[in-house]
Amino acid sequence: LEAAGVKTNEKGYIVVDKYQNTNIEGIYAVGDNTGAVELTPVAVAAGRRLSERLFNNKPDEHLDYSNIPTVVFSHPPIGTVGLTEPQAREQYGDDQVKVYKSSFTAMYTAVTTHRQPCRMKLVCVGSEEKIVGIHGIGFGMDEMLQGFAVALKMGATKKDFDNTVAIHPTAAEEFVTMR
C-alpha cells in the first residue's frame, strides 16, 4: 500500500470514499481493511455495489452504511439495528424521542423451567414516530431482526407497526403490539 501511495488512516485502515475508491485511481478497497463495519455481509454488499459500479454501468452504486443490522450470536442472541436510545436523544433531542419496551416469553420456553424472556425496544422520533432503532435480546432475535431491519431501512413508523397484524404466538409479535 505504501509503495503504491494508498492512504491509510491513523489506525492503519485504507481510506476510501463512499464509492470504495482510494486516493489512487483504479485501486479500490472494501471490507474489514477499510474499518467501516467489520462484518462479512457488509464486505460482500460493498463488493457487490463496487462491481455493479465498475462493470454494470451503475455509476452511483454504493453501500449505505447506515442502519446495518447486527447480531451477537450468544445465548440468548442480541440483535440491534439503527440508533440506540442515547444516540437518538443526542441526535434528535430528548423531547423528540419516544421509546417503547416489551418483555415476552416465547411459547418455546414458556413451559420449561428455564424460561427465557425476550426483551425488545423500539426507538422512535418525531411526531410521526419514525422508527430509528430496533433492539432486542432473547430466543429467536437472531432470526426475527432481519425483516424488521428492512422496515427500519424503508422508514417505517410506529403507526406502520401498529397497523400490522401480529403473528401469534411469536416473540416477534411484540414489535407490532407495543403500546
TrEMBL record:
InterPro entries: FAD/NAD-bd_sf, FAD/NAD-binding_dom, FAD/NAD-linked_Rdtase_dimer_sf, GSHR/TRXR-like, Pyr_nucl-diS_OxRdtase_dimer
Residues of the FAD/NAD(P)-binding domain: 2-47
Protein name: Glutathione-disulfide reductase
Record keywords, A-Z: Disulfide bond, FAD, Flavoprotein, Oxidoreductase, Redox-active center
BP terms from Gene Ontology: cell redox homeostasis; cellular response to oxidative stress; glutathione metabolic process
Cofactor: FAD
EC category: oxidoreductase
